[in-house]
Design brief:
- The protein is α/β, with parallel strands linked by helices.
- It folds into 3 domains: 6-70, Arc Repressor Mutant, subunit A, CATH 1.10.10; 91-164 and 270-297, D-Maltodextrin-Binding Protein, domain 2 (3-Layer(aba) Sandwich); 167-267, D-Maltodextrin-Binding Protein, domain 2 (3-Layer(aba) Sandwich).
- The protein is built from 10 helices and 12 strands.
- The strands form 3 sheets. The protein has a 5-stranded mixed beta sheet with strand order 4-3-5-12-6, sandwiched between helices. A 5-stranded mixed beta sheet has the order 9-8-10-7-11.
- The longest helix has 28 residues, at 61-88.
- Pfam families: HTH_1, LysR_substrate.
- Keywords: DNA-binding, Transcription, Transcription regulation.
Length: 301
């Protein structure tokens, strides 16, 4: 979201991350430029805004006051722009979307391509993040809308739509498992397994299955990247456990097979379309959200 000045944008990022270096990485701006703006701001206010500590930067009392008002100014300014754009009937602007790695391929790129054709005035910026960071960026106002896996309750979080995807075994089409319509989790002991590792959300669900089934799976390899896991399966190294969402493209192309896990205690993976309830969204953001909602309502094979 645009803000009043470069200084305010840099100041809010440094205050949020407690470090010029981390703010630099987040904003993709040179640390020296950020430091220079902070020093200019302190000179203009006539007082330090941060305490310089060995562990990083900490807001002074003045800095805390500016941080509180700065966030409010940023939100108010964004709301003002939204109202002006809606009054003018514009269908342009930038929409920031946070998504997990699982959506870097599949329906979302196709949807964004269609939007580009129908609404060329809208610029969509996608932020591929670890699932645990998506909610933080949404509530902080860094993105307009988020696609979140297994969302937890949080103040201000509004789920506009959701879809559930079963978990299952992923293997090559000629693998013995591919002949089954479903399989119990205990099938893990029969085949070389490729397991998801933290911070993937699937890791915790598999841990629960191991406890409930009184099994301890010893994988031949593991990875914290969905694409790597699928590549390892394609190379014939073993069988993986993923959600159906993770392999939609490969199933369409018949490159991989998906066999749902039939354990009753296993919950499906939930993909939720989320916004910050307290934030007024631009017309462009509402249009994009509406198009994503249609995708969620579309029938799935």
């Amino acid at each position: 979201m645009p803000v009043f000045s470069r200084f305010l944008r840099y100041f809010l990022a440094v205050a949020q991350y407690g470090s010029i270096r981390k703010a630099s990485e987040h904003l993709r701006i040179a640390a020296s430029a950020i430091d220079r703006q902070i020093l200019h701001g302190e000179e203009a206010f006539g007082t330090p805004l941060f305490e310089r500590l060995p562990s990083g930067l900490r807001l002074t009392a003045t800095g805390e006051l500016l941080y509180t008002h700065g966030k409010r100014w940023r939100q108010d300014f964004g709301n003002l722009r939204t109202q002006i754009e809606d009054m003018r009937g514009l269908r342009r602007g930038q929409v920031d979307i946070a998504v997990p790695d699982a959506l870097a391929r599949g329906f979302l790129p196709r949807l964004l391509k269609n939007l580009r054709g129908t609404h060329p005035g809208i610029s969509i910026c996608t932020h591929v993040l670890e699932n645990k960071n998506i909610l933080h960026d949404l509530i902080a106002g860094d993105v307009d809308v988020a696609l979140l896996l297994n969302p937890t309750h949080a103040r201000g979080l509004l789920v506009r739509a959701h879809a559930e995807f079963p978990l299952g075994f992923v293997c090559l089409p000629d693998h013995p498992l591919a002949k089954k319509t479903s399989a119990r989790f205990s099938a893990c002991v029969e085949y070389p397994m490729i397991m998801p590792s933290p911070p993937l959300a699937l890791h915790r669900q598999i841990e629960i299955l191991e406890i409930d089934s009184n099994l301890s799976v010893q994988p031949v390899t593991s990875s914290d990247n969905i694409q790597m896991i699928k590549s390892l399966v394609c190379e014939g190294i073993g069988v993986a456990i993923l959600s159906k969402l993770d392999v939609m493209d490969e199933l369409t192309r018949k490159e991989l097979a998906f066999i749902p896990i039939s354990n009753r205690e296993l919950s499906p993976l939930t993909l939720a379309l989320c916004v910050d309830h307290s934030r007024q969204l631009s017309g462009a953001a509402r249009l994009v959200i509406s198009e994503i909602e249609k995708e969620f309502l579309a029938p799935r094979s």
